[in-house]
């Protein structure tokens, strides 16, 4: 059985709901389900079809028709409107002068089944001389105006983002935490092992070739081997200019020597990217479960954050920088900086837990 994804908005434009509806569902049944979503703490479901109605593209949806019969498309925006026809209209008809009642007697009988009619209006003001103009009230024109529709669309968009964020904080909290890059220690030389220089290499299977910075090539004695005929541009998340290529050099990893080629770039935020060409050539495998780089029966552990900082000659500043980064991530989510820092302190630096604390209504981070 097929279904449609429909979006609903209250008449005041402040409440939204999205439901998957079977094509065989009656509008009356769907109305009850939507009211539960829009008013979870209110008793509005009783006599839902009497007190509320759906309006789509300016027309009321008959409660006894199905989604299929009305040909409602996916992701269509439908307004949920209260029915104001009952007691106020009856009082107006009862208390109106005879001349007014006589004049209005010619109006179509289904007037009591129309929707969204202002309860404060008199009978004559409720309907125009032509019964077909009931849906042309100023309130309807205002509701269907392009500006209001844009605001409703923006609100639905923001609501969907917040729901997605809340779901991620509950089921995918790891995505908010800092991920340690896959670094290993290697040594590189042009020809002789005694001249090999230590290099911090980032294992990156997304890099098509193994890349080295120009500064690292100079330290390792490879600059004299750069073939500048192999210039080019690498385009990925950014752009990098290759100034040339070292066709073959030696790389030592955990006591084993390997022949490698290097693309040399002017600027690189790390010394070296151990790319897919080298990984494939030597049958290296990234084992994330064990957090090691495997080559045949050998396993080289990836470096921890502390080891990476030591290899770069850094002090404890990265820990403070990580806190600052997490604060900025929380600020980007819409929280103020002071609350973000307090929540991170309460969560012992755990970004996901801090965001969860800040998302709880009525709870402020200590």
UniProtKB/TrEMBL annotation:
Entries under Gene3D superfamilies matching the protein: Acid Proteases (2.40.70.10), DNA helicase RuvA subunit, C-terminal domain (1.10.8.10)
Domain UBA: 319-361
SUPFAM superfamilies xref list: Acid proteases (SSF50630), UBA-like (SSF46934)
PROSITE patterns, A to Z: ASP_PROTEASE (PS00141), UBA (PS50030)
Record-level Gene Ontology MF annotations: aspartic-type endopeptidase activity
GO biological process: proteolysis
PANTHER family for this protein: DNA DAMAGE INDUCIBLE 1 HOMOLOG 2 (PTHR15397:SF3), SODIUM-GLUCOSE COTRANSPORTER REGULATORY PROTEIN -RELATED (PTHR15397)
The protein's name in its UniProt record: Similar to putative v-snare binding protein
Species name: Cyanidioschyzon merolae (strain NIES-3377 / 10D)
């Amino acid at each position: 059985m097929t279904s449609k994804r429909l979006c609903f908005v209250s008449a005041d434009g402040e409440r939204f709901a999205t439901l998957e509806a079977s094509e065989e569902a009656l509008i009356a049944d769907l109305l009850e389900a939507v009211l539960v979503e829009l008013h979870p703490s209110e008793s509005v479901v009783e006599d839902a079809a009497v007190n509320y109605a759906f309006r789509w593209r300016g027309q009321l949806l008959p409660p006894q028709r199905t989604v299929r019969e009305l040909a409602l498309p996916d992701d269509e925006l439908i307004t949920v409107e209260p029915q104001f026809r009952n007691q106020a209209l009856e009082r107006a008809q009862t208390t109106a002068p005879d001349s007014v009642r006589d004049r209005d007697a010619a109006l179509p009988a289904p007037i009591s089944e129309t929707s969204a009619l202002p309860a404060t209006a008199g009978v004559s003001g409720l309907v125009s001389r032509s019964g077909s103009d009931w849906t042309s009230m100023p309130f309807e024109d205002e509701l269907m105006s392009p500006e209001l529709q844009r605001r409703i669309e923006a609100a639905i968009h923001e609501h969907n983002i917040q729901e997605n964020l809340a779901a991620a904080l509950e089921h995918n909290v790891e995505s908010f935490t800092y991920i340690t890059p896959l670094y290993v220690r290697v040594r590189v030389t042009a020809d002789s092992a005694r001249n090999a220089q230590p290099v911090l290499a980032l294992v990156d299977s997304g890099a098509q070739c193994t890349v080295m910075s120009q500064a690292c090539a100079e330290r390792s004695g490879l600059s004299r081997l750069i073939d500048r005929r192999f210039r080019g541009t690498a385009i990925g998340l950014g752009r990098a200019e290759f100034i040339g290529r070292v066709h073959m050099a030696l790389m030592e990893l955990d006591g084993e020597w390997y022949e490698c080629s290097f693309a040399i770039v002017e600027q690189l935020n790390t010394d070296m990217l151990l790319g897919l060409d080298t990984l494939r050539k030597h049958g290296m495998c990234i084992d994330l479960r064990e957090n090691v780089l495997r080559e045949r029966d050998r396993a080289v552990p990836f470096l921890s954050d502390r080891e990476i900082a030591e290899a770069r000659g850094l002090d404890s500043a990265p820990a403070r920088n990580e806190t600052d980064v997490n604060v900025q991530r929380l600020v980007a989510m819409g929280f103020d900086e002071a609350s973000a820092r307090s929540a991170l302190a309460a969560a012992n630096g755990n970004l996901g837990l801090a965001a969860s604390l800040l998302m709880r209504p009525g709870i402020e981070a200590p």
